[in-house]
Specification:
By secondary structure, this protein is an alpha/beta fold. The chain has two domains: 115 residues, NAD(P)-binding Rossmann-like Domain (Rossmann fold, 3-Layer(aba) Sandwich); 229 residues, Dihydrodipicolinate Reductase, domain 2 (2-Layer Sandwich). The chain is 34% helix and 26% strand. The strands form three sheets. The chain has a six-stranded parallel sheet with strand order 3-2-1-4-5-6, sandwiched between helices. The protein has a six-stranded mixed sheet with strand order 8-10-9-7-11-12. Strands 14-15-13-16 form a four-stranded antiparallel sheet. The protein binds NADPH dihydro-nicotinamide-adenine-dinucleotide phosphate (NDP) and ligand LTNE7NMQ. The ligand N[C@@H](CC=O)C(=O)O binds next to helix 6. Ligand LTNE7NMQ binds next to helix 6. Keywords: Amino-acid biosynthesis, Methionine biosynthesis, NADP, Oxidoreductase, Threonine biosynthesis. It comes from Psychroflexus gondwanensis ACAM 44.
Length: 392
Amino acid sequence: MPQQITIGLFGFGSVGSGIYHVLKKKQIPRIHLKTIVVKSPNKPRSIDSKNFSYRAEDILEDTEINVVLELIDDAQAAYTIVKKALESKKHVVTANKKMLANHFEELVALSKKHKVSLLYEASVCGSIPILRTLETSFAYDNLKSLKAISNGTSNYVLTRLFQKLQPFKDIITDAQKHGFAESDPTLDIDGWDSKFKLIINNYHAFGVLNTPEEILNLGIRHVKPEDIEFAKEKNFSIKLIGHSNLDEEGLTAYVAPQFIPKTEALTSIDFENNAVEIDAEFAHQHLLKGKGAGSIPTASAVLSDLVSLFDDYCYGYSKARQQSAEFNDEKLIKVYMSSYDRKDLKPIKFETEILCGTQKHLQYKIGKISVKSLKQQTADLSSELFVAVFPD
Ligand SMILES: NC(=O)C1=CN([C@@H]2O[C@H](COP(=O)(O)OP(=O)(O)OC[C@H]3O[C@@H](n4cnc5c(N)ncnc54)[C@H](OP(=O)(O)O)[C@@H]3O)[C@@H](O)[C@H]2O)C=CC1
Ligand SMILES: N[C@@H](CC=O)C(=O)O
């Protein structure tokens, strides 16, 4: 158990500055923030520039620093930092889901080899303690499904679009101002960020480790006013969902917008809030909800990881040890797709076509298709097709 936590912090953006202020406010005994490393020497800062260094070695080669907080927006640079930190036997707390999803196995193995903790609660659903909950409360229950609204930016955009018609890019600008969006917001709106989070969730919930390449991610970029009108008329909301379902045929997992009946709890999750709906064999249904993005709420998850180091906390990965579920993308799902141009609907071939229709100038069709086929058929689409999962 470390007697003293001496922190080296990488990044002073939305999350990095958040944890700085939280630590300053809490003044926790035996926790000392020693060094902050950022990238750009000439950037205006909210605190004195003498607080900053620009050399990673100032943290990585400082033997007094025993904990690295990795809170930067560059997944490749983060990988290099985290790898070196673990190899130097420093504990790591990170919020970087893109880095984790791409290097999961290697980094977890490194942390075990060097007997240090690698914690990342903030990487999935901001302030919601989902990973700790899966690890502790559901470690020996059998999870049947996990549905997550895990991207605050997309949920913020959809909430605003359902409130009133407004330009998509103006809402993204607001999400950036609030510090919710990734530096590259296409990660948010095209479902990549949700996919990285789904990969992390799946490992803790089902013991299945997917690669980013094998998971379908569809986003909300092409949602149109008529799609929203259609949803409202039918008493649905539209949410971007990371959906994982385990049955005797294996684990089906994908990220896509979904039409959700207004009677379901997930429809009430608005703005940057996130939620995770779990269905487990013994515990039945649970819903965790809370702020999924933003400076201070995300910092709270970083803080909880940090203080847990006093108890030598590290993840047990019990599901990975217990289960050997196979990933299965052959499952058929019911899908809605729409475009102003009927030609855009043609290239996607359903297994079974159920319905074709129009909503003002919008053409749509609904049918059944396997997750695998949908992934293959939407891979190189250049059209403005909006695709969403439709309830059975
Ligand atoms: N924003 C949010 O709500 C959430 C973000 N996350 C994750 O947290 C991480 C940080 O996000 P966020 O705070 O929003 O990002 P920001 O863009 O607000 O800040 C990024 C920070 O990283 C620094 N940085 C970038 N590259 C380097 C480098 N090579 N060495 C040192 N510092 C570097 C930047 O330095 P400089 O200031 O000099 O430009 C900046 O301070 C990301 O992985 C993100 O996905 C997770 C949950 C929620
Ligand atoms: N960009 C992300 C930040 C938190 O992970 C989001 O919008 O959810």
